[in-house]
Design a protein that fits this description.
Belongs to the TRIM/RBCC family. It catalyses: S-ubiquitinyl-[E2 ubiquitin-conjugating enzyme]-L-cysteine + [acceptor protein]-L-lysine = [E2 ubiquitin-conjugating enzyme]-L-cysteine + N(6)-ubiquitinyl-[acceptor protein]-L-lysine. The chain has 477 residues and is of the alpha+beta class. Helix content is 36%, strand content 19%. The strands form five sheets. A seven-stranded antiparallel beta sheet has the order 8-9-20-11-16-17-18, with no helix packed on it. Strands 10-19-12-13-14-15 form a six-stranded antiparallel beta sheet, with no helix packed on it. Strands 6-5-7 form a three-stranded antiparallel beta sheet.
Length: 477
Amino acid sequence: MSAAPGLLHQELSCPLCLQLFDAPVTLECGHSFCRACLGRVGGEPNADGTAPCPSCQAPTRPQALGTNLQLARLVEGLARAPQGHCEEHRDPLSVYCEQDRALVCGVCASLGSHRGHRLLPAAEAHARLKTQLPQQKTQLQEACERKEKSVGLLQHQLVEVEETVRQFRGAVGEQLGKMRLFLAALEGSLDREAERVRGEAGAALQRELAGLNSYLEQLREMEQVLEEVADKPQTEFLMKYCLVTSRLQKILAESSPPARLDIQLPVISDDFKFQVWRKMFRALMPALEELTFDPGSAHPSLVVTAAGRRVECTEQKAPPASEDARQFDKAVAVVAQQLLSAGEHYWEVEVGDKPRWALGVMAAEAPRRGRLHAAPSQGLWLLGLRDGKALEAHVEAKEPRALRVPERRPTRVGLYLSFGDGVLAFYDASDADALTPLFAFHERLPGPVYPFFDVCWHDRGKNAQPLELVWPEAGEA
């Protein structure tokens, strides 16, 4: 053999088990492995039937590979050769080449391709390398641990993907289910309205039809009488003619034009579809929450009703604020008693014609003492009205962001909060069946929040109007 010592043995060894090939298979990329080793590390094939090569990750089809007979015959020949001897010189392998990391014979070491390399007697190399074995084992174990962590991370991510998809499907089913229920209820309502109109109109037309048939029968009877009178003698003709014509004129005078019913049903047009969408959007909001104002947080100038649903700024001189850190002492504001920390929430506030107010949420940990800086970084996410006409969003800036002036000033404001989606949206809820967007913050809140209400100073009676919390059923505030 002309191959370098040990090279043939190395080339005919599986890179996975480091043993001579057993039923070798050669992949499309050129790498060869024992069939059993490839099956052990290849894992489950992909959807297209391919699996990655363990050496280069190139795709291959293990089931389509046949045994490499040429490689198998070489392995069989090498297995019959004497072990522990140089493949080229047949001398014992007594020298270790550190440079090539190969066991060679004395001829290869002194005269062959390893001449001049760093060489050690095989016994010395054995003793030295054996001491390094624990270090190699440690490195191998560390590599295994790293890969096991990677496998665990990937498995965890797979579980997360499955859970995310499950939650997504659940949310889709829930939302579309609400839409289906709303549309089914609307369809039923419109169908009942159509049936009512059909019943009323049908009954009215039946009555009209009965009257017309009766009138028509009278006309036909008069027609028959006229024919009978025509053949009567002179005296009888004249007498009966006067009676018949008098009766005929009376019947004709009683005749009225057919009634035309005004059928009132919705017109199925683009506007109808838009109105349905607006109503459905309102119906898909979470149920209206029954919030109450927290009297303990209210500024001393504010008066909260016993039911906790109405607050106003009084013009009477207010007592000094207490030392309670929960009470606002500078801002003429109040928060709700309810702490919101997860899920979806929707509440409405009746602002009426109040010219100045601000609504939103306040971080539970945000300070309430002293002047408040209305900005998200300070734990306040607010929308407000100034001077009765300017809607402002209190964003992260020196001045609030002026919003487009709506055609009409909202008299009721709806607030939608979703912790999961990171949304705080404000709507004009003046129309009970339709919500008109005003502004929305898109950011995940850092923690629990309280609904916040800035009633603002009464301004010598110019801003004394109250704020009222809207509940699902009207009642005393």
